[in-house]
Amino acid sequence: MAYVDRGFNSGGGRISPTSAEFARAGIQNDCTLRPARHPQHSVLFYEGDKAERVYELDEGVVMLFKLLPDGRRQVVEILNAGSVFGLSAGEVYDCSAESLTPVKVSTLDRNSLETSPSLQRHVTRCLLSQLETLHDHAVLLGRKSAMERVSTFLMRLVPNRGGFGCVGPTEEAGEDSRSVTLHMTRQEIADYLGLTIETVSRVISEMKRKGLICIDRQDQIRIVNICRVCQMTGMH
Amino acid sequence: MAYVDRGFNSGGGRISPTSAEFARAGIQNDCTLRPARHPQHSVLFYEGDKAERVYELDEGVVMLFKLLPDGRRQVVEILNAGSVFGLSAGEVYDCSAESLTPVKVSTLDRNSLETSPSLQRHVTRCLLSQLETLHDHAVLLGRKSAMERVSTFLMRLVPNRGGFGCVGPTEEAGEDSRSVTLHMTRQEIADYLGLTIETVSRVISEMKRKGLICIDRQDQIRIVNICRVCQMTGMH
DNA sequence: CGACGGCTTGAGGCGCTTCAAGTGCGGTGG
DNA sequence: CCACCGCACTTGAAGCGCCTCAAGCCGTCG
After folding, report:
1. A16 and A36 Cβ atoms separated by less than 8 Å
2. Contact list, B76 vs chain A (CB under 8 Å)
3. Is the CB of A43 under 7 A from strand D?
4. Which of residues 110-149 of A touch B (CB under 8 A)?
5. 3-state class of A96 per DSSP?
6. Are residues B32 and B106 in the same domain?
């Protein structure tokens, strides 16, 4: 489990007009704003680092994780574009952040956060959505079986399905299928779902055997029948 | 698992000068603020209810929980005085709230939240602290053994110990012990820690047998040697 | 081609759950 | 005052699901 060095200081260019919410909030102060790109598997910060900067993810996927001293890892959040992270209640980051894909992030000095009410609102909205996701994830980690965890994980990657606003199988006669990209290794999925890599692999194999999914590529899964997978999440 | 009816409409009195942060924030609008008391085991709202009001806990302890359709329950948060809850990213509450002790809560209309910047800051601070707690809890649920979970739970009830700012055993020669009140049944603890009631009971019995704790009353545990219990949390 | 890394598969073991009694304690009533 | 009841908790025995350890497989790259 060797993690890549933080690939920082890469291209501290000027803000692009279409990029961050940070920009939309009207904060364009030279020293506080630095949109930057980082390759896959860059560590943006480590748990315990001084929490001086706040991040907004403009493009790509980032995971937040925590380590126990004996090496056990728990991935606590998977963040998509639009998420704000790196905000801490204390002086230091409470978890580490690593990019799962190439990413584009904007950062902001922690102190300048409080200057903009519209930015405050945006941050609050992000935090609330993260809170709900973490509540759901607590249910997954505390109460679901391995099969339910993997099914829930896969359903999370299908937009507009599985939640309250589930649109159901599309009207079109025919299959209710969809291909999703994981952006994560089996080990990362295991550490997110509170399982071992072997269990994740076994469950995925079983779903394949049952005809619920097809493995197009290692990190590209075709869900053959979305409704059937959704039924296995424990939420129906 | 029968849950008590929501004992609402009890005493919608006027605000007391020493009570909520909501008040300190300068929001004293008659229709938006209603400090109220509720007995132990009152359900303040249910998952799925329209999220019209935001709560602040002035006194007592509240738990937030979610249920799966087959009855499995996960307690997702335990909240102490000062916490804000009932804020939702969507239209409805994402979990249910029940008092573990008699409580005093202030409520605020959801819409009036955005009017006060100082209140915004207070809410953000609360959300951040809840986020960190949920991160820690994800590690507990995903990666810790039963013994580690119970030890972590007990240490959470000891102020100033176990965290970064742990003061260590007090200088005073003698025992490093402390009595804590759980405010929860074994079933509630189990549903919080992602275990069964039997496992929680067995682990507590084993800790008692090892001389780590004494059971004063059912919900009152004396931690005989705090450092030794802390050592079992998996975080050292 | 061979080496490497990520993934899969198998066999066995352990930790927690399940199911089923048993215990202890506070409250009620004879 | 004590017998009885109910409820929460404890304890035991058996089973199962996931973990551990160990090979084996497969695609990629030098």
Report:
1. no
2. 134-135, 138-139
3. no
4. 114, 117, 120-121, 123-125, 127-132, 134-139, 141-144
5. strand
6. yes
Domain stops at, among A98, A120, A140: A140
Q: What's residue A132's pLDDT?
A: 98
Look at residues A193, A171, A174, A184 and name the one whose alpha carbon lies nearest to residue A219. A184
Give CA–CA dist B32/B191, Å, rounded.
34
Please state the φ and ψ torsions of residue A169, each to the nearest 5 degrees.
Answer: -60, 140
Pick the residue from chain B with its C-alpha nearest to A76.
B135
Q: Which residues lie below 8 Å from residue B145, measured CB to CB, with a gap of 6+?
A: B234
pLDDT (tens digit per residue) in A156-176: 999 988 877 777 776 665 678
- pTM value is 0.90
* Higher-scoring residue by pLDDT: A13, B220: B220
- Could you tell me the distance in Å between the CA of residue A206 and the C1' of nucleotide C13? 22
pLDDT over 80 at A33, yes or no: no
Averaged over successive runs of 10 residues, the pLDDT of chain B (236 residues) comes to 35 38 54 79 97 96 98 98 97 98 94 84 95 98 98 96 76 78 97 98 98 95 96 96
B205 CB-to-strand D distance under 7 Å:
yes
Q: Which residues of A touch B136 (CB under 8 A)?
A: 66, 94
A117 within 8 A of A25, measured Cβ to Cβ: no
Q: Is A1 near chain B, with CB under 8 Å? A: no
Q: Give the pLDDT confidence score for residue A23 in this predicted structure.
A: 59
SS3 A90: coil
B40 touches strand D (CB under 7 A): no
The pLDDT value recorded for residue A39 is 94
Domain CATH number, residue A219: 1.10.10.10
Containing structural domain, residue A226: 144-233
Domain final residue, candidates A140, A162, A185: A140
Q: What is the DSSP letter of B14?
A: P
